[in-house]
Design goal:
Layout: H1 2-25, H2 29-59, H3 64-94, H4 111-156, H5 161-177, H6 179-197, E1 205-206, H7 207-225, E2 229-236, E3 242-244, H8 250-258, E4 268-276, E5 280-288, H9 297-314, E6 320-325, E7 329-337, E8 339-340
Parallel strand pairs: 2-4
Antiparallel strand pairs: 1-3, 3-8, 4-5, 5-7, 6-7
Helix pairs in contact: 1-2, 2-3, 2-4, 3-4, 4-9, 5-6, 5-7, 6-7, 7-8
Length: 341
């Protein structure tokens, strides 16, 4: 309804403007209003065919030759249609004493309706292009705002609170039993928090530092689960002089613990392999699935949704993500481009 209203306002303003222009030249208000109303169907045809066919199908696709040809044909059809409408309505009322033919013997009489169609179509196209540009800018701002919110939400939820509580409890136990191991845990936790709170604020970080963050996280979790967890973590390829958006991989690693391993009280396992090529990083992540597994759809769904939105924002149509599950395991395969320093 808003769109119909905007179009109605446009045509009312256009009629008022043209009637005012013609009235200055010839003060016959009824003639000019009748002419504009009679010619509206031809102008509707020309304007809307231009806006919704020629503009999107040819002009915006840079097919300028076809656009010009289509518009020229449309103008010729619209011009004769307008001439027919005026000849059937305006002339019998205001020029009944003139012997006027539908097709004038003087071709210059067709210039006026032709200019009318060109002017109104040009005005409509300019307005639409300006509105489309404004809409694109607004959509871009909304997407940017949404991406910022998603990234903030993602960063805030990177480390599950239970991870911190359990790590601190484990640290307390290690202080009593193995002070040297506890000291290493403090260093790992400190490095992990420093990276997340400070380094990850940058748009790109060193691949080496990002993978060290993953290593610290998994090392702390390994201490927590002890012999119950069989964890294998391998990195293949060169991490030097490569950059990546921070904390893209951590949600998947955390997810494998939070929604798989933590729910299994028997022997469980995780296999994490990261392979680096010149400008590509590939993550292959597998973990065991509890036989009594019940998916936490609310929390898990939001986390994965945020990750996918962030990937789409950072690497539109340049990444590949596959998440599958079978009866006894979960599998994640991620492929993303890297930046070289």
């Amino acid at each position: 309804m808003k769109k119909i209203g905007r179009h109605g306002v446009f045509w009312c303003l256009y009629i008022l403007f043209t009637v005012g222009i013609y009235y200055v030249q010839e003060p016959n208000l009824g003639l000019h209003i009748t002419y504009e109303l009679a010619s509206l169907p031809a102008k509707f045809l020309t304007v809307y065919a231009t806006l919704y066919f020629i503009l999107p199908q040819f002009l915006l696709k840079k097919k300028y030759g076809l656009a010009f040809l289509q518009f020229a044909i449309l103008l010729i059809v619209g011009m004769f249609f307008l001439r027919l409408l005026v000849w059937a309505t305006v002339y019998p009322i205001y020029f009944a004493d003139l012997d006027t033919k539908l097709i004038p013997s003087n071709p210059t009489k067709l210039i006026s309706p032709l200019l009318d169609l060109i002017i109104v179509s040009s005005i409509a196209v300019v307005i639409k292009l300006l509105r489309d540009r404004e809409k694109q800018q607004l959509d871009h701002l909304n997407r940017a705002k949404s991406n910022i919110q998603n990234e903030l939400q993602l960063l805030k939820s990177q480390l599950h609170p239970h991870f911190l509580f359990n790590t601190l409890n484990g640290l307390y136990a290690q202080i009593l039993e193995n002070p040297e191991k506890a000291s290493n845990m403090v260093v790992q936790l400190s490095d992990l928090l420093r990276f997340i709170l400070y380094e990850a604020k940058e748009s790109l970080v060193s691949v080496k530092e990002d993978l060290e963050c993953l290593g610290n996280y998994m090392a702390l979790e390994q201490i927590r689960y002890g012999d119950r967890l069989d964890l294998k973590h391998t990195i293949l390829g060169n991490t030097v002089n490569k950059k990546i958006a921070p904390l893209l991989l951590l949600p998947f690693i955390e997810n494998s613990f939070k929604h798989g391993i933590s729910k299994d009280y028997e022997k469980c396992w995780i296999r994490c392999e990261i392979e680096l090529f010149d400008d590509i990083l590939m993550l292959a992540l597998e973990n065991s699935k509890p036989s009594f597994f019940e998916e936490d759809r609310t929390e898990n769904g939001i986390g994965l949704k945020n990750v996918k939105q962030r990937l789409e924002h950072l690497y539109p149509q340049k990444y590949d993500l596959t998440i599958t599950e079978s009866e006894d395991r979960f599998f994640v395969h991620l492929k993303i481009p890297l930046e070289n320093k």
